[in-house]
Request: fold
Amino acid sequence: MIKRHSDIDKVLAKVKRRIHEQAVSRWEWAQRIAAILFIPLLLGCLWLYYEKDDVKQTVQMIEIKTNPGMTTSIVLPDSTLVCLNSESVLRYPSHFEEATRRIELEGEAFFDVTSNKEKRFIVKMGGQSQIEVYGTSFNVEAYAKDNKISTTLIEGTIGFIYKDKDGKAKKIGLKPHQKLVYELSSFKTQLYTTSGETETAWKDGKIIFNNTPMDEVLHILGKRFNVELIVSNNLKIDDYAFTGTFTTQRLERIMEYFKVSSRIKWRYLDSYDMEDKKEKLPSTNINCE
Reply:
């Protein structure tokens, strides 16, 4: 009886050992299966992550417009500050992924460009012209209706690229306190020396004239107050230049200043042009006594 009991114990021990081995074997197979399943799952998660990241990095073009008589400020993806003047349009990508930082401008803007010698900053304008810099401050005026482009450099260096009358690309380098004017119709360029105050005062809500010629005075006032000023044929505007600083003064007050200092008469036209939404000063209303 004792022997038989001993045999039974041996058999039970053997069975337990086999059960344990089978359990271990099944656990190893479960681990292998889990590992096999985990690899494609991991690859799938990584694919979704990078796919999602690609979606985030999709470049979108952004367009900013200003209403007549209004200005605004924009910070570009590279931290460049742009002040946009009245009736202007700025187009730029949601992020700069190419070798250059390229934007488009119609109108007027002041740029304080973040320095990056690895990526040029390019402002594309009308007439197949553009400005390229790496980091500097400058003003650009490129209204299509004016048939000219002007840029004033405040700090750093810029290169103005344009086409001459033969269609060849030309480049002019500017130094601080230089202003370049490019005539689109004649393809001519002119360089001037300037303090830059008159050209950039608009971004601070000011009007600054520093012995400024009359034609430029009327041009600046037209942008600021959204009016069209038409000069009488008998008024020789080349004979006039003005100096003065204006901040919150209304147009009427400024025009009265011209009247006192230069005896220029003026008055508003009674009618209102609904198409342009601009008040007009007709040619018979600005006269030199």
Residues 282-289 have pLDDT under 50 and may be disordered. Helices lie at 2-56, 197-200, 214-225, 251-262. The two ends are 145 Å apart (CA to CA). The first strand starts at residue 61 and ends at 65.
